[in-house]
Specification:
- The complex is a heterodimer of chains A (513) and B (486).
- Chain A has helices spanning 2-17, 23-47, 53-73, 85-107, 117-127, 144-183, 186-198, 200-206, 212-232, 236-251, 258-264, 267-280, 305-317, 319-323, 331-345, 351-363, 365-371, 384-387, 393-400, 404-415, 443-457, 462-471, 486-491, 493-496; strands at 420-423, 435-438, 476-480, 498-504, 507-512.
- Chain A is mainly alpha-helical and 513 residues long.
- A five-stranded mixed sheet of chain A has the order 2-1-3-5-4.
- Chain B has two domains: 2-385, no CATH class; 391-479, no CATH class.
- In chain B, a hairpin with a 6-residue loop joins strand 3 (463-468) and strand 4 (475-479).
- In chain B, helix 1 (2-29) packs parallel to helix 6 (108-118), helix 13 crosses helix 15 (338-353) and helix 14 crosses helix 15.
- Classes of the chains: A mainly alpha (513), B mainly alpha (486).
- The A-B interface holds A 275, 278-280, 290, 293-294, 297, 300, 344-345, 347-351, 354-355, 358, 370-371 and B 49, 52-53, 156, 199, 202-204, 207-208, 210-211, 214-215, 218-219, 222-223.
């Protein structure tokens, strides 16, 4: 529903702006720009506490009908210059094969550990809108992508949200290819599309309900819109670019500081990260695929004006990276770098097919297992049975998200949907209906945690610390055994004024008395 | 006259064939050396995944892959393991012959040039040893030969052929990244003067070269750490000395020590070679400039300028690498490429600029005498730098005859022989020998394989010497208390 809602909204937007694009471009722009508008519409519904499946379906139906009518009024569109006959079929087969594989991974139960996005989506669904803020605690605001996921989640739960995110990666790959076709360097665009689409990091990120692939896609289309404005002189493309830039900022802003920029600019830092981010990976971190080690070749694109503009886009996208030095934050940058690499290699016969073939082989989950660090974040064993719901979902999730999934289930069982939990570690919130505030995620949470730690050393402060939690509206306290406070809480729960209700998977859930 | 030139050509071809035959004989009969056995044990006789994701300075990736192919196709033996190097040796001889012909034409000095290029012990050993040096050197020299034969605006096919040769050379051994890059930089400088040629060079040589090298080396190198690059010299002079000593002294151990004048003379010669190399490089500058101005389009002229430029650029790269990133200078075999580079440069300068008949004759005599120095170091039955390994195969065969799998035995082996014993244990399927460890001499054992430096153990452990290998002086012994006879 999110996809059709986005497509319909996008078509209406482009019709309203009277923007004429090539047929291939129009579909892609309709989807990405539509996703921005559709998210805004869902945000409005959530703000009005109308975030219900029936409402979403009604609005989507209206938009689709309107878009259908608008489409009928519009005349035929031109096409971009086609790819060569055999190339087209090979590309389609490669793209289709990997897409099919990704769909299976996306439909399998969500096991992304670090994303809290579906946790918030779950809470929005429970609250039929934006959840009420917790007194005295300023939580990080919801990402725009969560509003895009919400209608999908309301129908197909986790798998639908993951599929919605996957559609952004597919749009990015197709967008890169169509940009190349429009700019007269189709092979460079196709190369960049495959570099992104096949990348192990992009794959694992896009098949989880996260934000980075969507951000990369939105930023690239923002650049694409600016390029179209520059090439055609149509000012209305600036409106599309503005909408996309706003959507990108709303998906995730960069918190780049001078210190982080200086650190990232150190050559030894860059050299060390280059191998880790492209080939080896690190514990819990993804990697782009070894072919990205050739990224410095992208600098050769500086020889051409289009290459210089692409690298300028890369410099802008790099802002998202310096703020958070994680490989997945580099996905927006990688799209531009891949395009620049394609432009550098486009006149060298045989290099592009060779590198795409190597990248495809190296990106297969079985091949990546050979050369990467053992516990990197990547697609692992083929989850066909899980995708077809032929395995016990609880057991499947427990084996892949231990102990976070076990914690989430325990919290749900004890605190219930209405419970408000202060957590000293992060459970798998995507599978938890209770309202959970993780201490580390906000200034107020960290202050409360500090109070608890201080009270662990002083008996006279303990009840005051717990009543402080209660004043913020918390009814439950979740404490893993590894936490510094855990021993004191466990030893003298009565002294704190709390009751241990459930102990599971190396953690205890206390009720605040 | 024409008949005479055919004679010299035939003679040179006969010499090349003889050198190849010698290399083939050594490949088939010489005992495995520590470095070859290490290559097999760690990079060839293991799953492909380990070949591609493990790294050490000893790992010559393309060689390991081809050796693996050879071993899989023809079974494991010293010869099959050395087959890629042997084929590389054949290629080297062909290119050396072609380059000698470019410089001298079909004349007597062509034969001498071929000998000087091929019989240097550092080069000759690598024509058959199961390492990547020989094949890498052959491919790099092939690239030089291609470049020398280019017209002013080379065709894409010619550029791609040179790129392929350079990719193979670096794939065979990382040391060729220095002369390979130097040659590529010179090509870039050369072609920059022709309109449109730079783009051609970039698209058909440089980019394919980078991509090809990347595809071969990226995965193993991703697992490399700074401490893996341990082999090298701290100073440039020290580096040149290791190359000159390996060229002139390594195979001379058989020469009677009492002929002191000879011994001293060769040592002095080896000691002075760095100065000779420096003089050669300096002399090359005016010669190169003169050739660029006068005869840069001829094959001979292009070869000369390419040699001078490549030598200087390679030297600069080594110095900059050492000063800026503390990269060590080459050590003996890791500087193998300097031998054909400087030999060809010396021969080219002599042919082109020494015109006085008496001087020409004197230099000719010196060249032939130099060749004699190389000939004196040829040892068909072993590789001089690895003389200690010469008897490993023999010791294993004796052990095999004595025990023949009747019981499980434990070996105490000098650490230098451990890799060789592991290789032969696998090659002959001697599973009745317990896995050989590096510290095995410190534990009680059923048999001991000792090198001359361990002979004190014979008395200390009361060992009975069973056999002694004449070349390596390695000894197979066992505790004297054991009564059964071989």
């Amino acid at each position: 529903m999110s996809l059709s809602g986005a497509l319909a909204t996008g078509r209406l937007l482009l019709s309203a702006l009277r923007v004429r694009l090539a047929r291939e471009e129009e579909r892609l722009f309709a989807f990405v720009a539509g996703a921005a508008c559709w998210s805004a519409a869902v945000w409005l519904l959530a703000w009005l506490h109308l975030a219900r499946k029936g409402v979403f379906m009604t609005v989507a139906a209206i938009l689709i009908s309107a878009a259908f009518l608008a489409l009928r009024k519009r005349g035929p569109c031109a096409s971009l210059p086609p790819l060569g006959g055999r190339t087209r079929y090979v590309c389609a087969a490669l793209f289709g094969g990997f897409l099919l594989m990704y769909v299976v991974y996306a439909v399998a139960p969500e096991t992304s550990l670090t994303g809290n996005h579906l946790g918030r989506v779950e809470q929005m669904q429970e609250a039929r809108g934006l959840p009420a803020p917790v007194a005295g605690i300023v939580e990080p605001g919801p990402s725009a992508i969560e509003f895009f996921y919400l209608p999908a989640f309301s129908i197909g739960r986790h798998a639908s949200a993951a599929l919605a995110h996957l559609s952004f990666l597919a749009a990015l790959a197709l967008g890169l290819a169509s940009y190349g076709r429009r700019s007269g360097c189709a092979r460079a665009g196709v190369f960049a599309g495959f570099m992104m689409f096949l990348s192990p990091l992009a794959a694992v990120d896009a098949t989880s309900a996260r934000t980075e692939a969507a951000l990369a896609c939105t930023l690239f289309f923002c650049y694409y819109a600016l390029e179209l404005w520059d090439a055609t002189g149509r000012r209305r493309m600036l409106v599309v670019a503005g909408i996309l830039l706003a959507f990108a900022m709303a998906i995730g802003t960069s918190s780049a500081s001078l210190e982080s920029i200086q650190r990232a600019a150190r050559p030894e830092y860059l050299m060390g990260k280059a191998i880790e981010w492209t080939t080896m990976g690190a514990t819990g971190q993804g990697f782009f695929g070894p072919v990205f080690l050739l990224a410095p070749l992208g600098l050769l694109a500086l020889r051409k004006p289009i290459g210089r503009r692409t690298l300028a886009g890369a410099a802008f996208a790099a802002l998202w990276l310096v703020g958070a030095a994680r490989p997945e934050a580099a996905l927006p940058l990688a799209a531009f770098v891949a395009l620049a690499m394609g432009m550098a290699l486009v006149d060298s016969p045989g290099m592009i097919p060779l590198l795409v073939a190597v990248h495809a082989v190296m990106s297969l989950p079985q091949a990546a297992a050979i050369y990467s660090w053992p516990d990197t974040w990547r697609l692992r064993e083929w989850p066909l049975k899980a995708a077809l719901h032929r395995v016990n979902e609880d057991a499947y999730l427990m084996s892949r998200m231990y102990p976070a999934y076990g914690w989430a289930r325990s919290i749900d069982e004890t605190a219930g949907k209405s419970g408000q939990v202060f957590a000293l570690a992060e459970p798998a919130r995507a599978y938890c209906s209770a309202r959970i505030i993780v201490a580390e995620e906000s200034e107020g949470g960290r202050a409360l945690r500090a109070t608890l730690q201080a009270a662990a050393g002083r008996r006279d402060l303990r009840r005051a610390a717990i009543s402080g939690l209660k004043q913020h509206g918390f009814g439950w306290l979740f404490v893993p055994d590894a936490d510094p406070c855990a021993r004191s809480l466990r030893a003298s729960a009565t002294g704190w004024g709390i009751t241990p209700i459930k102990e599971a998977h190396g953690a205890v859930i206390y009720r605040l008395d | 006259m024409a008949r005479l030139s055919t004679v010299w050509t035939r003679l040179a071809q006969a010499l090349a064939l003889a050198i190849f035959a010698l290399s083939a004989y050594r490949a088939a009969t010489c005992s495995i050396t520590i470095d070859e056995a290490f290559t097999y044990n760690r990079f060839v006789g293991v799953p492909y995944t380990q070949t591609l994701t493990d790294f050490d300075a000893n790992h010559h990736v393309l060689h390991a892959l081809l050796a693996r192919l050879s071993v899989v196709a023809f079974g494991i033996s010293e010869f099959t393991l050395r087959l890629p190097s042997l084929l590389g040796g054949a290629l080297y001889l062909w290119v050396a012959l072609a380059l000698s012909r470019i410089i001298f034409g079909p004349r007597p000095m062509m034969v001498a040039a071929l000998g000087l290029l091929s019989l240097n012990p550092l080069v000759l050993d690598q024509m058959s040893m199961a390492r990547g040096y020989g094949a890498g050197l052959a491919c790099w020299l092939l690239a030089l030969y291609f470049v020398a034969g280019w017209p002013p605006s080379p065709r894409p096919g010619q550029l791609r052929a040179a790129a392929l040769a350079l990719i193979a050379s670096v794939g065979f051994n990382l040391i060729f990244i220095v002369p390979g890059l130097a040659l590529a930089v010179w090509c870039a400088i050369e072609t920059a003067r022709e309109e449109g040629a730079w783009n051609n060079l970039l698209n058909h040589m440089i980019l394919p070269g980078i991509v090809g090298t990347f595809l071969i080396l990226a995965l193993p190198l991703a697992h490399a750490e700074a401490q893996h690059f341990y082999l090298g010299e701290k100073t440039l002079r020290g580096s040149v000395l290791t190359v000159s000593q390996a060229s002139l002294l390594q195979g001379m151990h058989w020469f009677p020590g009492r002929i002191k004048i000879w011994n001293t003379w060769v040592w002095i010669l080896a000691d002075k070679l760095p100065w000779a190399a420096a003089a050669l490089l300096l002399l090359g500058i005016p010669a190169g400039i003169h050739t660029l101005l006068r005869a840069r389009t001829t094959e001979n002229g292009r070869l000369g300028t390419s040699l001078i430029a490549t030598a200087w650029i390679a030297l600069l790269m080594l110095v900059i690498g050492n000063k800026a990133a503390h990269v060590l200078y080459p050590f003996a075999r890791t500087g193998t490429y300097w031998i054909p580079l400087l030999t060809l440069l010396a021969l080219w300068l002599w042919k082109r600029y020494v015109t006085h008949a008496a001087v020409r004759a004197a230099v000719s005599v010196a060249a032939w005498a130099w060749l004699v120095l190389y000939l004196l170091q040829i040892h068909p039955s072993y590789y001089p730098p690895f003389r200690g390994d010469a008897g490993t195969k023999y010791l294993v065969e004796v052990l095999h005859r004595m025990e023949n799998g009747s019981r499980k035995i434990r070996l105490g082996v000098n650490w230098q022989l451990v890799e060789g014993f592991r290789f032969y244990r696998h090659r002959y399927g001697l599973n009745w020998i317990e896995p050989v460890e590096r510290d095995s001499l410190e534990q009680p054992a059923d048999y001991y394989a000792l090198l001359p430096q361990d002979l004190s153990l014979i008395e200390k452990l009361r060992l009975q010497v069973l056999v002694r290998h004449p070349d390596s002086e390695a000894v197979l012994a066992r505790p004297a208390a054991v009564q059964s006879s071989p």
